[in-house]
Design brief:
Layout lengths: L1 H10 L1 H23 L17 H14 L1 H10 L11 H36 L1 H24 L4 H4 L2
Helix pairs in contact: 1-2, 2-6
Length: 159
């Protein structure tokens, strides 16, 4: 799949350019939302509507299921670590997949446990909340400018 995308980008560089500029534009929009006067930090506490456990589970499940990063990881990165000389290929892929799941669960658990504390800290310290907004907005704008002005061709960028 990734070879097909790289080939499409190499044959029609305008597609790569359009996706690159759209991504840079999105990052600039996020930066503006953070820095603009009256902007709000994404970590600021806010009232949410109550949702049932089933709805929350389904939302999380669908988000994970439809996330293209997992497919890209499985197609492009994990095969590099599978060696037929080391034994059954399917078992190696299963172990790599289970390792990736374990790392993902541990990372998400860390974010879940610390998110409330971080949001509470920012709620109690508005100066830190404002500083966070400006640092985040500046970083996003910097990433957007770098992406937009990068001169790397599509074939080189996807290797």
């Amino acid at each position: 799949m990734s070879a097909g995308i790289a080939t499409a980008f190499a044959l029609v560089p305008e597609i790569y350019l359009a996706i690159k500029l759209a991504g840079a534009g999105y990052l600039l929009w996020l930066a503006w939302k953070a820095i603009r006067p009256g902007g709000r930090s994404p970590v600021a506490p806010q009232e949410l509507t109550q949702a049932g456990d089933r709805k929350l589970f389904l939302m999380g499940f669908l988000t994970c299921l439809l996330d293209p990063k997992v497919a890209i990881l499985c197609i492009s990165l994990l095969p590099q670590f599978v060696a037929p000389a080391r034994g059954h290929v399917g078992l190696q892929e299963l172990l790599l997949g289970l390792t990736q799941i374990a790392v993902g669960v541990a990372g998400n658990a860390f974010f879940i446990v610390t998110a409330g504390s971080v949001a509470g800290f920012f709620a109690r310290h508005p100066l830190w909340q404002r500083l966070h907004r400006y640092v985040m907005g500046t970083a996003l704008a910097g990433f957007a400018v770098r992406i937009a002005t990068e001169r790397t061709g599509a074939a080189v960028a996807l290797r």
